[in-house]
Fold:
Amino acid sequence: MSLFIGVDSGTQSVKALVLDMEERRIVARASARHALICGLPPRHMEQHPQHWVSALDLVIRKLAGQIERRRVRGIGVSGQQHGFVPLDAEGEVIRPAKLWCDTSTAGESEWLNRKLGGRRAAIRRVGLPFLAGYTAPKILWLKRHEPLNYRRLRHVLLPHDYLNYYLTGRYSMECGDASGTALLDVRRRRWSALAIAAIDRNLADWLPALSSSHEPAGMLRPDLARSFRLPQDVVVSAGGGDNMMAAIGTGNVRLGVVTVSLGTSGTVFAFSREPLIDGRGEVAAFCDSTGGWLPLVCTMNVTLVTEGFRKLFGWSHRQFENAVAATPAGAGGLTLTPYFVGERTPDLPAATGSLHGLTLQTLARPYLARAAVEGVSRGLQYGLDALARLGSKAREIRLTGGGARSAAWRQIMADLFGIPVVKISEDECAALGAAVQAAWCVGRLDNPRASIENYARELVRLDESTRCVPGKR
Structure:
């Protein structure tokens, strides 16, 4: 039977795993760290794409040493969304990639929204507003601030596309990750001539052709196959952005399932069979990486806040957990507004955090810890409510990310959301999703009617011991 490699290239590291389709389990893991470029001006966040390649090489070699290499049939790549990898005519990187967390392009995003008639007009015309984190403002930033580099620009890729390019030698992009550029007409799944023209009409020639999520990005380059000592017929699937791959890796490929990711920031997203356009611009109307859509809400303050309090108190994770569990719901009336780094949803970039309801009783570490967890959970509830407003209602919340390990936090969310919550067994959901998508891609070569929902049902496991229902403690 076949093995499939799933790779997740994030901001801090590349993590990878091998999925054994016969045993329906993960049989190997590897990771390699990479770093941000230091010393940049405030709000600039960049990385060298070559560092991603070096880390990718390392993890594949580590994995190959743990498995029967001849059984590898496919590789899938997940990558951090929105990054801008500029290449010249020869496919060489022109300058470091600007990342999703680079907000130096705020002026460019405002300018692009005005160019299309304002934020609401941009949503009406493209399906998304231009946000500083998206790719389109980064391209305009290059044009404005580094004109010599911009003159060399001939190919625009996203981080996972660049790794696919390295693996296959082909330029490609699928609609899921492409929808995070703000250059895609998300309703029609094609490049938006209006958004492109707002930057440069020539940009249309520098964007790769769009492919469907089930189509391969290409075959593994023969020289890499020899170097990794893998078969010559290894398929590289379309891959996608990390949220799109996490959706697959949490089984969020059917109606009624909502994934909540509890990382430094938080994401709330669901599957939809049609585009869900939010006139307020709070819900990102992304495409997913299965052929559907992925309405998504991002909040900036999750474990960033809880970890901040934990470290302030000098507590271990266990001490923090015990304090939260032992403190009454509502934290004695203490309420935290957790906008420590501003907020994206709601759109309050200049907001700050605040505490309300301080008394001699609540001026204590356990109450502050409980208020922190409840405060960030209310922020995630805001995202759930925004999805429900568009008609995407959750029957089950599937949790991933570091915060999902907390039993007390899971119960708080079940009570607050009024919906059962459960943790996914596999922590590396994006890497698992990439492997599952690769298996689906190869499976469709033999059976064009193969369903991603069936693959996810068979390969994604819930940790039922973590399930929490509202009102049950």
